[in-house]
């Protein structure tokens, strides 16, 4: 049986000025903390109302974020008990993030090709960018 007490989440700041809708920012933040292993399987998440109050967003925004994470198999809900990280939540979150990263890389490769770079130049460009990220 999952624990019934929830933990205090530390998510990146949620802002209307940041890219993406508020619920997408919540989804992204939760995926990050789950994929990094900061939330163990069966960890209780804050209630809709609590997280909405913590993030200064509407309950509907949090509910929508939780529904998307549940649909992706990252979290699950137990009637009357709350919302929890799924046993495979870390793996599913990582898979979803890697699929998104792949989409972004494909978009970047297409943009680089459309700017006139050859495949070898695109590879070099990616390696230089990766080195910039690593340093």
From TrEMBL:
Domain of life: Bacteria
Keywords: DNA-binding, Transcription, Transcription regulation
Record flagged with keyword Protein biosynthesis: no
Pfam hit, one: GntR
Record-annotated HTH gntR-type domain positions: 20-88
CDD domains in alphabetical order: WHTH_GntR
GO molecular function: DNA binding; DNA-binding transcription factor activity
PANTHER family recorded: HTH-TYPE TRANSCRIPTIONAL REPRESSOR YTRA
Stated name of the protein: GntR family transcriptional regulator
Protein species of origin: Prosthecobacter fusiformis
């Amino acid at each position: 049986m999952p624990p019934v007490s929830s933990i205090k989440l530390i998510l990146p700041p949620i802002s209307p000025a940041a890219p993406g809708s508020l619920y997408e920012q919540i989804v992204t933040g939760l995926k990050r903390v789950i994929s990094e292993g900061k939330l163990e399987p069966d960890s209780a998440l804050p209630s809709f109302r609590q997280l909405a109050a913590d993030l200064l967003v509407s309950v509907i925004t949090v509910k929508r974020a939780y529904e998307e994470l549940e649909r992706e198999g990252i979290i699950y809900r137990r009637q009357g008990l709350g919302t929890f990280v799924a046993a495979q939540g870390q793996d599913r979150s990582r898979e979803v993030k890697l699929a998104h990263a792949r989409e972004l890389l494909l978009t970047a490769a297409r943009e680089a090709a459309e700017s006139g770079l050859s495949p070898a130049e695109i590879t070099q460009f990616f390696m230089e960018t990766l080195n910039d990220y690593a340093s």
